[in-house]
User: What shape does this take?
Amino acid sequence: MASSPVTDRLWRHFTPAGATARPIVIERGEGCYIWDTEGNRYLDALAALYCVNIGYGPYPEIAEAAREQIERLPFFTNWVGFATPPALELTEKLTELVPIDVGRIFFVSGGSEAVEAALKVARQYHRLRGEPTRYKFITRRSAYHGTTMGAISINGSPALRAQFEPLVPGCLRAPLPYRYRCPYCSDEPACTLRCADEVDDIIRNEDPQTVAAVIMEPMQNSGGSIGPPPGYFQRIREICDAHGVLLVADEVICGFGRVGEWFGSTKYGIEPDLMTMAKGLTSAYAPLGALVASEKVVEPFFKEPKSMFIHGITFGGHPLSCAIALANLEVFEREDLIGHVQRHQDEWKAELNRFAGDHPMVGEVRGDGFFYSLELVKDKATKETFTPEERDELIKQFIVPRARELGVYMRVDDRAETAAQFSPPLVAGREEFDEFLGVLKQLLDEAWEQNVLGRSPATV
Ligand SMILES: Cc1ncc(COP(=O)(O)O)c(C=O)c1O
Assistant: This one.
């Protein structure tokens, strides 16, 4: 392959102006590894962005499925009464996999668009049922649901929203089930579900007749793999039912094996009315997202011959992406990737916990499946956390670049507290896990022993 041109004109996503250095240009992948144009190899401990679930292959059958589809029909639309064979076949396949009674599946191009479609379905659903005053959405603090205008409006991170006010009105946020620092019950022997009851309080306080939907990730990424305590989603379901509010499971990360089942809803016994998905649906081999709507939700949309969901995306359900999604799901099944995750998850979690127990900088390990976060602290006994400046210094100036030097691409999430993450392709095995843990140990040992905080990167 010809070497890539040197240009500053590529507007890199979420990249600060200060990052003037040339991008790291990734040109090749295999298994759980990626290579840059300088020939450096990195273990991908994040499945790119929690999305290359089957790893980088090679999978000649996926290339073949893509080639066949392009030769047969490069594109046609799912609009105005049309469909394509891969979109129909994928609809049936997803219907088999999701743990809800499927009414309809609406394809889009990615996660933000799936969330956007969920918000619009929820509002139109209530209007069609004669409740046009229901327009508000409840999500959770620090949650990330994408960056389009609706999706950013429901995000829980003030820093992501601030530049784009005024946003979609009526977006409210509930507390997280975050036992490590829970203001309600971290001192109690078990979670009291006060955080779930807060959703009830918010709905009552707003007037239930104004609330359209509650949107939650089964295990929330932002904040560091925040999973549900026992009974949490059952309680949320009861609250939604009591107030006539729809429940949306944002499965964009949790879906397709990440937490050790096909979906987070399967794993945690959630009964959502709507499910958003993207990322692992194609393992990112092509852009695709989907909104799965239950029978209950679609019922009012099909009551009158003239009614319809007033929404469309040109590339939603692109036949190439759907053909690739089908080939991706075949790989999942043939390689028994869900079984593979299940066979490793307990052992890995136990090892991460042992590591955390021994390390002065790790406050807690959270997660399931192949989706772990290690919350980093300044003082384990007091759970003291970092100031924003210290956090920048620790993460951006030390851990992330040093991890790259040591051959690991990883993320330290800092949208709430500080959490080092391990979310590799689902084909990762013992070797990759050991490599990650070895590098993480080295990083944290160096950070601790050399007292990174307060030093300039040149001195570490
Ligand atoms: C839970 C969740 N929802 C939605 C999105 C938005 O997806 P996309 O970046 O494909 O638009 C993301 C992206 O990371 C996500 O993590």
Observations:
- Residues 110-112, 115, 144-146, 217, 221, 250, 252-253, 278 surround pyridoxal-5'-phosphate (CB under 6 Å).
- The longest strand covers residues 102-108.
- The CA atoms of residues 193 and 232 lie 6 Å apart.
